[in-house]
Amino acid sequence: MNNEDNQSDRRKFLKYGFLAAGLTVVGGGLQKVLSQDKDKDAGKKVKVMTTDGKVIEVDDAHCKAAQSCCSPATPEGARQGIPGKKFVMVIDLSRCGHELKCQHSCQRYHHLSGMNVWLKVFKMQEGEHTAPYWMPKPCMHCDKPPCVKVCPVSATFKREDGIVLVDNTRCIGCRFCMAACPYSTRSFNWEEPQLLNETTGVVYSPETGFPQKKGTVEKCDFCPDMLKQGKLPHCVTACPNGVFFMGDLNEDTVSNGAETVRFSKLIKDKGGYRLNEILGTEPSVYYLPAVKRLFPFQDPLPGESNEDKEKKG
Amino acid sequence: MENKERKELTETEAIDLLHELNEDMLPKKFGIVGNSWTALLVIMLLTGIYCYINQIRNGLSITGMRDFVFWGIYISNFVFFVAISLVGSLITAVLYLLKVEWRAPLSRISEVIAVSAIVFAGLIIIVDMGRPDRMINMALHGRIQSPIIWDVMVVSTYMTLSFLLLYFPLLPGIAFCRDRLKGIPKWQHKMYQILSLGWKYSPQQYAVVKKAITILSIIIIPVALCIHTVTSWLFASTYRPGWDSTNFGAYFVSGAFLVGSGGVVAGMYILRQFNPAYKKYLTDMHFDKMGRLLALLALVYAYFSINEYLIPAYKMKGEEAGHLNELFTGYYAPMFWSVQFFGMILPILVLMFKKGRKPLPMFIMAVFVIVGAWFKRYLIVIPTMSFLPVQEIPEAWKHYSPTFQEWAITGGSLAGALLLITLFVRFFPIISVWEVAEEKGVSHDIIYTHLHEGNEK
Amino acid sequence: MILFTHIYTKEMKNNQQNSIVIITRFKAILASLLLGAFALSFNVAVSQEAKKATSKLAFKMRLSSILTNGIRSVKANLSKMEDGKTVSVENLASPIRLYLSEVKKYDPSNGTGLISKAYINREGEGEFEFPDNFNKVTSGMHEFTFIAKLESDSLYQDVEKEVTVSDAKLTIEYNGKDSIKTATACLVEWKGKEYVPVKEGELKLCIKRAFNFLPFGPNAPSTDENGNVSGELPLDVPGNANGTLTIAARLEDHETFGTLEITKDVPWNILPKVNKEHGRTLWSQGDNAPLLLVISSLVIITVIWGTIIYLIYLLTRVKKFGKMP
C-alpha cells in the first residue's frame, strides 16, 4: 500500500469514526453498526431483580431511536414549517449583561467557524445623551422579509411558522439579500468554510445550517431543529440571565426556560417594541426596553466580554 | 439651416462618392500600433481570466469584499458597463427616429460599444456570484419578484436587440468585405460568406433591413430605459441610505447617456488618429454636434445629481448624514469632488465654447467623462456600505479596498470589451457605407445598383 | 436607530480556537480507539498523536427521575469544566448504562439490573427509555434506585451516579361547568401500605405549551392536608387546535420523588390563532408570485421577444431574397 492510499484510507476511516462519534440521537443507528457494543448487548435479555427477590428477564433496552419528525428536514422539506405555529422571540434588554453566552452557544451548536457570527450583541447608544445598553441581535424573521423578496432563486424563504431560512444548496451567492436586510443579519462564506470535524459527513439541512458551503449566505435560523423537538433554541437556553424568550404567538406563550409567561402580557407590562417598525418589515423579534436593569452598563475593553473582566478582577 | 441643405449630386458624382466610401471603409490589417494594442488587451484579458479561475478555486475571499462591504468593484463595473451600453440606443435609435442625419457615421461605433459593453456586463455579474456553478437555478427556481431576475431578463433582451441592431445595417458591409477583400485567410472569407446571409445588394433586401432597423429603433428604447432603471433598482429596492432613492432610475439613465456619448466621442477621435481616411467622415462638424449633445447630457445629469445629493443633504436624516458626510467631507471626499468636477462640471464648462468642441479638447473631456463615470459608479455602490458604524471588527474590514486580483479581473473585463471593439474594427467596416451615402445625398437607386460595383472595378 | 452594525469580539475567536483544539485532541483519541477496535495498520503519525492523550477527562453527571403520566424515565445531564466554565459534554461516544437496584443488588459484570442505555446528545443530555414491561415488572416496588454508569470510554473517566426516588402519584381534576373554571391536583405518596396525601408539596398547576408549562393558580403553590392544590384557569388563554386545553400538574425536582408530572386534556373553546394566509405576495416563492406581476411581465416578455422572433424571421427573409435570381 503506498502512502497516498494509506492516507485516504485513514481519512475515510476517520470520517466514519466521526460520523459515529458526532452522534446525536440521529447518529445512533450508525453508531450501533460501528461500535463494539453491538456484539455485547444485541438481542440479549437483561435481568432485573424485583422487590420480592426474584430475578426476571426483560428485553434489552435500545438507545432511543431517532424519530422522523425530529430529524432535521431535507432542503425541500424544510420549506414547510411546523403547522399551526408562529414563532416569536422576546429579548429583554434590561437583563443583558453582555456575557455573550448566547453567542458562544450559537456558534458551537451551529458549528460556525471563521468570522461568521449569527447572533451579535451590540453596544447601543443612539444619541449623545441617551443611555447605552447591550442589544443582542438575531435574525428578525420578518413577516414581510425584504431579503426573501429580492432572492432570485427562492434560496431564502419564509415558512408558514414564521421562520426565514436559507437553503445553501440552492443559493447562488449574489448577496442581494444581504443588501436588502435592514438589520444586517446575514453573513457570507467568502472562502471554503473551515468545517469542524464533527460536521464531516453530516447531511446538510437548512434547519441546522451546517455544513456551510463556500459562496453562500447564512444567518440565524431560530434553531428549527430544536423547535421541532419542543426544545428552546440554543441562545435561549445558554443565557444565564433569561434575556431570550421564545414561544408560539398562536398560543400566546413565551418561555426562557426558567419562566413561562403570556406573550401579550409580557409585551404589555414591559412596553415591548420591535426594531424599525417604520420599515414595515414586521419582525418576529420583540424587544423589552432596558429599564430597571439587572446589571449596570459596563463597557468592556474592546474584544472582551464583561465575564472576562470579572475573571481577571 | 444652410449647411444642412443637401447638395444636388449628379449621378457620376454619387457613384464616385460611393466607391470612395467603399474603399475607405474596407477593414485593413493592423500595423504595429494596432497589433501591440491588441496584444496588450489580450494579455490583460488573460490575466483577468487567470485570476477568475483562482477566484473560483478559492472563493470570493480573494477580493477585498467582506460582510460589511459585500459588493465591490465587480458590481460598480457592471453598472458602468450597463451604463455605457445604453449609448447604442441613444445614437442609433433615438437619433435615427429623430432623423438626425449627422448620426450616420456614428451609429455603428455606438452600437459596437453597446454590444461589447453589454456582453461584458453579463460576464462581470457572473464573476460577482458566489456560486456561478448554480446559474441554472435562475431558470429552475426563478422568482419573478426579484429585481435580479428582471435584470437577467432585460440584460439578455437588450443584448439580443443590440446585436440585431448592429447586425442588420452591417449586412451590406459584410457582403462588401466578402466580395472585395482579397488575399485574406480562408476562414475570414468563410466568415464573411456566412455572416452576409447571401447579401446581393437587392432592393428587397434593403427594404427588409430598413424595416428591421425601424422596428429595432422603436423597441430598443424602452428596453434600454428598462435595463438601466432595473439596474438602479438593484440598489433602490433596498433600505440602505444612499441607495434608498426614488430618483435612482432617472439618475442612472441620465448618467448612462452621458458616459455612452463620451465613449462614442473617444471612439471617434481614436479612429481618426488610427486611420486618417476616417477624417473625411468623422468631421469637426460631428465633434461639434456630439459636443453639444454631451454638454446637454451633462447638464441633465447635473440636474439629477443635485436632486440626488442636495435634498437629502438639506434634511440630513440620521443615516443619510453619515453617508453624505463621508462623501462630502470624509473618506471619499477627494474622489467624490474629483468625479463631480472632472466628470461633469468641467465638461459642461469646456463644451459650452465652440473651441472646446474641437476634436482634441472633446477627446480629453470624453476621457474625463468616462473615467469619472467609472469612479462615480464606485461611489454609488461602495460608500453606502462602508460608512456604517461597525463594532469591534478587524480594521481592514472597515474600509473596502479592492485586491490586486479583483482589479485584474475588472481590468480584464474592460480589456475584453475593448478587445471586442478592436477586433470589430479589424474585421468589419466601422462606418456604415450605405447610411453615410444616404446622409451625403446619394439616392437609394444609386446605392442599390452601384454599391456592389466595387467588385467589377 | 443604528441599523447596520456588526460585532466580532476577540473572545469569540479565542473560544473557537479552543474548541478546535479540543476537537483535534478528540480526533486523535478517537482514531486510536478505532485503531484498536479494527486492528488495522495506519501510519505512524496517528499513533503518535494518540499517545499525547494519556489522561482521561473528568465530567459531572446529574441524574433525574421523571414520572410523566405514570410513565417513568430517567435523564442524565453531563457537564464538564472547560477554562473555568461549565460546559455540556457533547462528544461522548460510549453509551451510559442504567441499572435498577434496591441497595446495590445490581451487578454490571453479568448485566443484572441493566434496564436501559442511552447515548448523550450534543447538549450533554441523555434520556433512558425503559422496556415496555418495566411497569409490570416493577409493580410491587415503591422505591427505585437508578444507577448510571459510564465505563471504559476512551476519552472520559468512568463515572457512576445514583439517584433514589420513592413512589408518589399525581392526579388532576378539572371543573369547567361554572363560569369560573378551576383545576385541582392531588399529590400522594406510598407510606407503608397505602398512598397518603403529601402536605406542603410545591405542586404547580400549569398549561402545557410548545416549549414549557405556563403556570396558573396560586403564586407559591403548596398542597393542603389532603395533598390538594387548586387554581383558577385564565379564561382567555388559547387552547389546542382540536378544541382542548392541556392542563398539567408538576412537582419539579423533588428530593424524594424526583419530577412528577401529569397532564390532562380538557374541553376548551378558545382556539389558537390561525396563521394568516398570505397568498400571492412579493415574498412568496416563485410559483406563488402576485398575479399582476406575473401577467404584466408575461405580456411584456411576449411582446418584446415576439418582436425579436419576427426580426429573426426578417433575417431569414434576407437570406431568401439573396437566393432569388
User: β content of chain C, as a range?
Assistant: 25-35%
> Oligomeric form of this entry?
heterotrimer
Question: How many DSSP helices of chain B?
Answer: 19
Which CATH class of the largest domain in chain C is shown? Mainly Beta
**In what range is the share of β-strand residues of chain B?**
under 5%
Runs of chain C in which pLDDT lies below 50 for 5 or more consecutive residues are 1-24, 31-53
Averaged pLDDT of chain B, please?
Answer: 89
Q: Between the first and last Cα atoms of chain B, what is the distance in angstroms? A: 37 Å
The CATH topology of chain B comes to Formate dehydrogenase/DMSO reductase fold
| Pattern of helices and strands of chain C | HHEEEEEEHEEEEEEEEEEH
Separation, N- and C-terminal Cα atoms of chain C? 77 Å
Per CATH, the superfamily of chain B is: Formate dehydrogenase/DMSO reductase domain
Q: What's the story with the biggest beta sheet of chain B?
A: none
Describe the global form of chain B. globular
CATH C-level class of chain B is: Mainly Alpha
Structural class of chain B: mainly alpha
Can you give the helix content of chain C as a percent range? 10-25%
Q: How is this structure best described in words?
A:
The complex is a heterotrimer of chains A (313), B (457) and C (325). Chain A folds into 2 domains: 3-59, no CATH class; 82-288, Alpha-Beta Plaits, CATH 3.30.70. In chain A, 24% of the residues lie in helices and 16% in strands. Chain A contains 10 helices and 13 strands. Chain A has helices at 3-21, 28-34, 37-41, 101-109, 146-150, 176-180, 224-228, 234-238, 263-270, 306-312, and strands spanning 45-49, 55-59, 87-92, 120-124, 133-137, 156-158, 164-166, 187-188, 217-218, 244-248, 253-255, 260-262, 285-288. A 5-stranded mixed sheet of chain A has the order 12-11-10-3-13. In chain A, strands 1-2 form a two-stranded antiparallel ribbon. A two-stranded antiparallel ribbon of chain A has the order 4-5. With 457 residues, chain B is mainly alpha-helical. Chain B has helices at 11-25, 32-58, 73-85, 87-97, 104-128, 137-140, 147-180, 186-195, 203-236, 248-274, 284-315, 318-328, 333-351, 359-381, 383-386, 395-398, 404-427, 433-439, 444-450. Chain B starts with 10 loop residues before the first helix and ends in a 7-residue tail after the last helix. Helices cover 23% and strands 35% of the residues of chain C. In chain C, helix 1 packs across helix 2. The interface between A and C is large, with 102 and 90 residues.
